[in-house]
């Protein structure tokens, strides 16, 4: 597990995250990024970390106000669709220890 | 020699098309933001290198972009459009109350004198303003909080605020239009708003002369005559000469007075342009013939302009923000189609050429006349 103390003593884990192609372009990043995420690692913690690292992505994954996942955004990891679990629920350990990437997917829809 | 730059927003990206003042040979750049819906781009009239752009996606929502070098490079700016207070409800298509929900930015209108000041017209209908180059947006909520707001209803394309006209002679006067609420005017910089729909007649609503509920598709103004407005309504081409207090139908001899775009010649305030479209469901040109109609009398008497435009098998639409004029002499007229063509006329509409044929569906066209 890649865990360390953060600036304010917050413990973090280095999480591997794959972003959808359009958001990679917006953020100017490679397909997979590694971000320090506050533990316990949850959807909310991951999205907070992404938005802090790449402010231009604020509002693209979840609503500015409600903080709810945008309808066509999905979260996959460890062979599971994690989109519908509670945003505050702890994610599988394989995500927190960097064994498995956390995939953010733009749902296959539209033309 | 002057140059012209067209800013074309499409369903799948943004394009810039540039030419010298002859407007014969064009350079096309793009797609910028490939794959994104680019609803509108518009440049500051006082800093032509400052361009604002609305970028959105059904997946990722609303983004905003700004270029400070004439569209060569872009930077993401603020995309947080929060309604002021608890936004309440408007009417849904079925007449039930529906919560106000931000969906996208339809139109951007940079200030006439400050490049950092820009207005945004959004769906669900509201007007926002930024005073810091688009980093932060504040709702001008007196409009949405007008007493009639709960009765506003979306048109088929959504409840969008699509037209923003700034009065060059009075910085506190702004005109806006909403589909399908109608036209509104503020004379105090946005604090209070007045519906300006007297004279409109919409036979598709329960009270055809209601104070609000009219499906205004677009409005245009000549800067030298800011109390004269021209309107393309769902049906009817209209004009007002008293800042919207009273409207008069000027459809005259048009073959159909349904359409989306309307614009005014840069140097002739009584010369106006529309593109008649067959409706109510087809939304393509009559008889497959694409014709711009020009009136040199401010309406009523119209002439078809067809030279260089397809006169058979043409079944495209021209959407509400997809026509613009340059300020060269002679005035250039430009429009884009849902078939991906951008047409240009360097002679005030007498003849046309397709600058490009095969872009994604064109949502908006703006033009800059550059030194």
Explain what you see.
The complex is a heterodimer of chains A (111) and B (371). In chain A, 20% of the residues lie in helices and 27% in strands. Chain A is built from three helices and six strands; from the N terminus they run ββαβαββαβ. The longest helix of chain A has 11 residues, at 43-53. Chain A is globular and about 35 Å long. Chain B has one domain (3-370): YVTN repeat-like/Quinoprotein amine dehydrogenase (Methylamine Dehydrogenase, Chain H, 7 Propeller). Chain B has strands at residues 3-10, 13-20, 27-32, 37-43, 51-57, 61-67, 75-77, 89-91, 97-99, 104-110, 118-123, 126-130, 138-139, 160-166, 174-179, 182-186, 194-195, 216-221, 229-233, 237-240, 248-249, 259-264, 272-276, 292-295, 303-305, 323-325, 333-336, 342-345, 353-356, 362-370. Chain B has a four-stranded antiparallel sheet, with no helix packed on it. The A-B interface holds A 20, 22-23, 26, 56, 58-61, 63-65, 70, 72-73, 106-107, 109-110 and B 35-36, 57-63, 76, 79-80, 82.
Report a brief summary of the structure.
The complex is a heterodimer of chains A (111) and B (371). With 111 residues, chain A is of the alpha+beta class.
Using brief descriptors, characterize the structure shown.
heterodimer, A: 111 residues, alpha+beta, Ubiquitin-like (UB roll), globular, B: 371 residues, mainly beta, Methylamine Dehydrogenase, Chain H, four-stranded antiparallel sheet, 0% helix
Assembly classification: heterodimer
Spatial strand arrangement across the major sheet of chain B: 3-2-1-30
Which two chains form the greatest contact, residue counts included?
A-B, 19 and 13 residues
Tally of DSSP helical segments of chain B: 0
Q: Specify the CATH homologous superfamily of chain A.
A: Beta-grasp domain
Largest sheet of chain A: 6 strands, mixed
Q: Secondary-structure element sequence of chain B?
A: EEEEEEEEEEEEEEEEEEEEEEEEEEEEEE
CATH class of chain A: Alpha Beta
Number of domains of chain A: 1
**Poorly predicted parts of chain A:** none
Give the termini separation of chain B: 7 Å
Task: Please give the CATH architecture of chain B.
Answer: 7 Propeller
CATH fold field value of chain B: Methylamine Dehydrogenase, Chain H
Would you tell me the structural class of the helices and strands of chain A? alpha+beta
Q: Can you identify the CATH superfamily of chain B? A: YVTN repeat-like/Quinoprotein amine dehydrogenase
Strand % of chain B is: 35-45%
Q: What does the average pLDDT of chain B come to?
A: 97
Number of strands of chain A: 6
């Amino acid at each position: 597990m890649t865990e360390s103390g953060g600036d304010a003593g917050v413990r973090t884990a280095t999480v591997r995250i794959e972003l959808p192609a359009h958001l990679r372009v917006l953020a100017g990043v490679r397909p997979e990024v590694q971000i320090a995420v506050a533990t316990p690692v949850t959807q909310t913690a991951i999205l907070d970390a992404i938005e802090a690292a790449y402010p231009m992505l604020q509002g693209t994954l979840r609503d500015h106000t409600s903080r709810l996942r945008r309808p066509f955004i999905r979260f996959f990891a460890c062979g599971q669709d994690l989109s519908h679990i509670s945003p505050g629920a702890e994610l599988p350990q394989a995500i927190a220890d960097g064994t498995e990437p956390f995939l953010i997917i733009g749902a296959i829809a539209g033309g | 020699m002057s140059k012209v730059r067209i800013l074309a927003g499409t369903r799948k990206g943004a394009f810039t098309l540039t030419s010298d003042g002859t407007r014969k040979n064009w350079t096309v750049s793009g797609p910028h933001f490939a794959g994104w819906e680019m609803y509108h781009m518009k440049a500051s009239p006082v800093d032509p290198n400052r361009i604002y752009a609305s970028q959105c996606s059904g997946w990722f929502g609303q983004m905003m972009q700004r270029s400070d070098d004439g569209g060569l490079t872009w930077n993401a700016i603020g995309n947080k459009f929060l309604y002021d207070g608890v936004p309440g409800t408007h009417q849904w298509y079925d007449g039930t109350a529906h919560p106000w929900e931000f969906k996208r930015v339809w139109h951007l209108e940079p200030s006439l004198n400050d490049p950092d000041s820009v207005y945004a017209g959004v769906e669900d209908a509201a007007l926002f303003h930024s005073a810091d180059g688009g980093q932060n947006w504040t709702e001008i909520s007196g409009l949405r909080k007008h007493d009639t707001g709960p009765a506003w209803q979306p048109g088929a394309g959504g409840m969008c605020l699509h037209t923003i006209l700034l009065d060059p002679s009075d910085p506190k006067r702004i005109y806006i239009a909403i589909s399908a609420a109608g036209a509104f005017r503020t004379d105090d910089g946005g604090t209070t708003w007045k519906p300006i729909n007297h004279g409109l007649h919409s036979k598709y609503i329960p009270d055809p002369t209601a104070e609000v509920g009219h499906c205004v598709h677009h409005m245009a103004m000549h800067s030298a005559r800011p109390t004269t407005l021209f309107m393309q309504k769902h049906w009817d081409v209209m004009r007002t000469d008293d800042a919207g207090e009273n409207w008069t139908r000027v459809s005259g001899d048009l073959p159909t007075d349904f359409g989306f775009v309307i614009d005014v010649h840069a140097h002739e305030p009584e010369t106006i342009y529309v593109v008649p479209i067959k409706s109510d469901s087809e939304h393509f040109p009559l008889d497959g013939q694409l014709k711009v109609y020009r009136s040199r009398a401010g309406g009523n008497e119209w002439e078809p302009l067809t030279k260089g435009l397809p006169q058979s098998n043409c079944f495209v639409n021209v959407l509400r923000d997809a026509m613009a004029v340059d300020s060269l002499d002679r005035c250039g007229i430009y429009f884009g189609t849902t078939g991906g063509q951008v047409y240009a006329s360097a002679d005030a509409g007498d003849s046309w050429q397709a600058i490009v044929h095969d872009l994604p569906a064109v949502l908006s066209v703006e033009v800059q006349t550059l030194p």
